[in-house]
C-alpha cells in the first residue's frame, strides 16, 4: 500500500478542532485514511504526491437523507405547485405506481445516475431510503438495490399508506411490521414519515419500536407539513435524526437541544414545495445539532446538489457559510452516527473535495455555479 501526500492546498478546511483551517497545507493519505496534517513545508516523505494546485479542499459532503430508488419524475406536479397548488404527501402514489412497474435494472440504472450526480456535487457518503415500493416484494428489492450503493440503507416501508390499504390502515401498519425481519438483512435504519397525510404518531411509534426491536436504528421524517408530536417521538426514541423540522414549537426545540437527535434540514424541500424555511439560527442558538441534506426525491426535492442546499440554507435559514458547510459535512455524519467522515482529522476517511475557488465561502457566494473540481472518495 502506498502513502500519498496531498499538497499545495491553498485553503484546507479540516473541520477538526485540532487543525482548523490551514493555508498552504498538506495531508497524507495512507490506506484510505488521513495519517498526517500540517503545513506543506513540514510534510513527511511519501510514496506519491498529488498537487491540488492551490485549490480549496474541504471534507466530502455527507448526505444523510436521500430517496433514490424510484423511476419517473413529477415535473408536472412541480410546475403546478409553482403555479399555486400546495404540496401534499398524496403525490407519492404517482412514484409508487412507476416504481412498482419498473424492472430491477431500471431502478438500478436510475439510482446509479443519481449517485453519480451526488458524487459530482461533492457528496462522498450518502444514505438511501426505500419507500416507493410499499409491497413486501417492492420494498425488499428497493433495499437490496440500495445496499449495492451504500451501507447507509433505510427501510421506509412507512412512507405513506398505499391506496389499496386506504380503508384498512392498521393492516398496512401490520404489513410493514411484518417486513422488518427481512428488511433488517439489508437496512441499517428504520424511518417513518410521521406527518399530515402519512402516518400518525401512534402508528409511527408502533412501527419504529418494532424496527428497534429487530436491531434497526431509528431516524424519522418529522414536522415537515405541520407542527405535531413527531419530533417529540423522535427524541423519545433516541433517533439519530429528526428530518425536515420545518414547523417546530419551543418545546420541540428544547427537546432537540437536550437530546442526541440531530435536526436534519432539507432546504431543497422548502424550495421545491414553496414552503416557509425552518429557522436554523433559532436551532443553533438553542444548542441543537443540525445537518443539511439533499432529500433527493422526485416529488418534494429533486436535487442532488449539496452546494445548492448550502446556498439556500445560508440565504434563507439564517446560517453563516461556515455553519452551513459544517451542517453538510460534520452534521450529516452525526445524523448517521458516524465519526469517520465529515471531517479531515487524523484517522478520518480520506474523503475530500477540491473546490475551484479560493474559499469555501464561494459555495454560497456563487450560487448555481459548479465549483466542484474533483470529488475524492477513499476505498473502504
Ligand atoms: O422527504 N416527506 C416525505 N417524503 C419525501 C417526499 C416524497 C415525495 O413527495 O415523493 C420528503 O420530502
Ligand atoms: Fe425525505
TrEMBL record:
List of residues binding 4-imidazolone-5-propanoate: 74, 132, 159, 224, 300
NCBIfam families according to UniProt: hutI (TIGR01224)
Species of origin: Candidatus Rhodoluna planktonica
EC number: 3.5.2.7
Name of the protein in its database record: Imidazolonepropionase
Sites where the protein binds Fe(3+): 65, 67, 221, 295
Source species, domain of life: Bacteria
Domain Amidohydrolase-related: 56-356
Residues at which Zn(2+) binds: 65, 67, 221, 295
One Pfam family from the record: Amidohydro_1
GO BP annotation list: L-histidine catabolic process to glutamate and formamide; L-histidine catabolic process to glutamate and formate
Chief location category: cytoplasm
Amino acid at each position: 500500500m502506498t502513502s500519498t501526500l496531498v499538497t499545495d492546498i491553498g485553503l484546507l478546511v479540516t473541520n477538526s478542532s485540532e487543525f482548523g483551517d490551514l493555508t498552504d497545507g498538506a495531508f497524507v493519505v495512507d490506506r484510505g485514511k488521513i495519517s498526517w496534517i500540517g503545513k506543506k513545508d513540514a510534510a513527511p516523505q511519501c510514496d506519491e504526491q498529488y498537487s491540488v494546485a492551490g485549490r480549496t479542499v474541504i471534507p466530502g459532503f455527507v448526505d444523510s437523507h436521500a430517496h433514490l430508488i424510484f423511476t419517473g419524475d413529477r415535473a408536472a406536479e412541480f410546475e403546478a405547485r409553482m403555479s399555486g397548488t400546495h404540496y401534499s404527501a398524496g403525490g407519492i402514489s404517482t412514484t409508487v405506481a412507476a416504481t412498482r412497474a419498473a424492472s430491477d435494472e431500471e431502478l438500478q440504472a436510475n439510482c446509479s445516475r443519481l449517485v453519480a450526480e451526488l458524487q459530482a456535487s461533492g457528496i462522498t457518503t450518502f444514505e438511501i431510503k426505500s419507500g416507493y415500493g410499499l409491497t413486501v416484494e417492492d420494498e425488499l428489492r428497493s433495499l437490496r438495490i440500495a445496499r449495492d450503493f451504500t451501507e447507509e440503507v433505510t427501510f421506509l416501508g412507512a412512507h405513506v399508506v398505499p391506496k389499496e390499504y386506504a380503508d384498512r390502515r392498521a393492516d398496512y401498519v401490520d404489513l410493514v411490521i411484518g417486513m422488518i425481519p427481512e428488511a433488517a438483512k439489508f437496512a441499517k435504519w428504520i424511518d417513518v414519515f410521521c406527518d399530515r397525510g402519512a402516518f400518525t404518531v401512534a402508528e409511527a411509534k408502533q412501527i419504529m419500536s418494532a424496527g428497534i426491536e429487530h436491531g434497526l436504528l431509528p431516524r424519522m421524517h418529522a414536522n415537515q407539513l405541520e407542527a405535531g408530536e413527531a419530533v417529540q417521538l423522535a427524541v423519545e426514541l433516541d433517533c439519530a435524526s429528526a428530518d425536515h423540522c420545518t414547523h417546530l414549537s419551543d418545546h420541540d426545540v428544547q427537546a432537540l437541544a437536550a437530546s442526541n437527535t440531530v435536526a436534519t434540514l432539507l432546504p431543497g424541500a422548502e424550495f421545491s414545495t414553496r414552503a416557509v424555511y425552518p429557522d436554523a439560527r433559532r436551532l443553533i442558538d438553542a444548542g441543537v445539532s443540525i445537518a443539511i441534506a439533499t432529500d433527493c426525491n422526485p416529488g418534494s426535492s429533486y436535487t442532488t446538489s449539496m452546494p445548492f442546499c448550502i446556498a439556500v440554507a445560508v440565504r434563507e435559514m439564517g446560517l453563516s457559510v461556515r455553519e452551513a458547510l459544517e451542517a453538510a459535512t460534520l452534521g450529516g455524519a452525526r445524523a448517521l452516527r458516524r465519526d469517520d467522515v465529515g471531517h479531515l482529522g487524523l484517522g478520518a476517511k480520506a474523503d475530500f473535495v477540491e473546490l475551484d475557488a479560493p474559499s469555501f465561502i464561494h459555495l454560497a457566494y456563487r450560487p448555481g455555479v459548479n465549483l466542484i473540481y474533483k470529488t475524492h472518495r477513499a476505498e473502504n
